[in-house]
Structure formats: C-alpha cells, structure tokens
Design a protein that fits this description.
- The chain is an all-alpha fold.
- The chain has a domain of 46 residues.
- The protein contains three helices and no strands.
- α2 packs across α3.
- The longest helix is centred in the C-terminal third of the chain and has 19 residues.
- The N and C termini lie far apart (57 Å).
- The mean pLDDT is 82.
- Pfam families: BrnA_antitoxin.
C-alpha cells in the first residue's frame, strides 16, 4: 500500500551542532527590543510566579530531614540550575502547598 504525501517536512536538529544564523539574522536579533518579540505561540500563563533563586527561606532549625524518592528527571532539572537545588525543590513544594491552602 502506497502512502500519500502529506506535504509535511521533518527536520532533525542536533543540539550539539545548531544551525548558524546569517549575519543579517544575527544583527536583527541583537537590535530587537523586548516589545518586538512575538509571544503569540506561547499559551497564556495564569497565576504566573516569578521564580528566583531562594534566599533565606526558612531557618534551618525548622527543617526536618527525611528520605524522599523523586523522579530522576525532576532531580536532574533542579541540579542543572545550580547549587542549593534542595532548597529550590522545597520552594516549589511550598508554592504548591500555599496554592492548595487557597483552593480549600
């Protein structure tokens, strides 16, 4: 059975070898202001929080040491951001807890 051409072109991108921009494209990007960026393909974000690196969140004496199993990709994501990944995981969990308290 023959398949019908769909007109869809598939590209494979190699993250280690991204395509190069032309000098014209690079100059346009460097001269672009924030107002000129098209965000129309990004879905709206409700209750958007500004995620920052945690500072002094909770005193150490208020913390409780436990053993917790997390998915490897979750731990990897937080570790990639930098040091104090456990504090950032705690901050994300705290945001969840606060959102649940407001919902009840």
């Amino acid at each position: 059975m023959k398949s019908k051409p769909t007109g869809t072109v598939k590209y494979t991108l190699d993250p280690a070898n991204p395509p190069r921009m032309t000098p014209k494209q690079e100059a346009r990007l460097l001269n672009m202001t924030d107002a000129e960026i098209d965000y129309s393909d990004i879905p709206p974000q409700h209750n958007k929080k500004d995620w920052t690196r945690p500072g002094a969140l909770i005193p150490a004496e208020n913390k409780q040491q436990i053993t917790l199993r997390l998915d490897a990709d979750v731990v990897s994501f937080f570790r990639k951001i930098g040091r104090r990944y456990q504090s950032r995981i705690n901050a994300a969990l705290r945001e969840y807890v606060e959102a649940q308290k407001k919902a009840v």
